[in-house]
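Can't paste images in this forum, so I'm doing it all in text. The chain is below; anyone willing to post the predicted structure tokens underneath?
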Amino acid sequence: MFYLLRGSTRVGSVPASLWGPWSVTDTPDWGDQMTLDYNFMANYWSAAVANHPEVIMPYIDTVLSLVPLARERAALPDWSPGSWVDDFGGEMSGMNCGQRGWDGWDLDAGCPKGFGGFKGVEMPAATGPFVGMAFHSDDSERYVAGLTATPLIQYYEATRDATFLQQQLAPFLRDIADFYTSYSVPSRTVEETVEEVMLPYTCANERCEGAVLALTPLWRWGSP
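Text version of the structure:
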């Protein structure tokens, strides 16, 4: 695994995508994307434990380069246009609120009119190195923002780089926390002591099955 990672990424270069540098066609499956809903960061989960955290840097540079646009996406006051940039214009209209059934998980159902205007960063399901590939959709996967941070956390744990922590990791984690704090909604109180906080319009990995309002528990507090 690490041999393949070393062969597909270099510090200062483009990070490893789904097919790395070994694609032998002009039309690779899934567009040779950098899929942020699992695959992209999973490439780098072995680097720090293999004592080569420097290999994570191309991933870090790519993810952090998306932050300004991700902030704009979160703050967009109306997410209802949906996700397809060719239909709705621009990379900021890429938020879903449930897909259209099992056979079309990649077809968004849009969001309610006026739903939007959040803090922090709203990340997509996939990105890429070319114009038009960044933020094409989020597939209603609101967990992606937190998942993108995992290689950055592993890099810091391996290096204890205080400058990286202060200037890059901490601000990114703050943006992620701001999004989840502003996006989450309180749900019911259980036995009068435990309250759940939920993420509305949230789907599991690429699976929504026509959900209109999927509520996913974010955390609980109070007496167990």
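The CA atoms of residues 103 and 191 lie 39 Å apart. The beta strands are 34-35, 126-127, 185-190, 194-199, 216-221.
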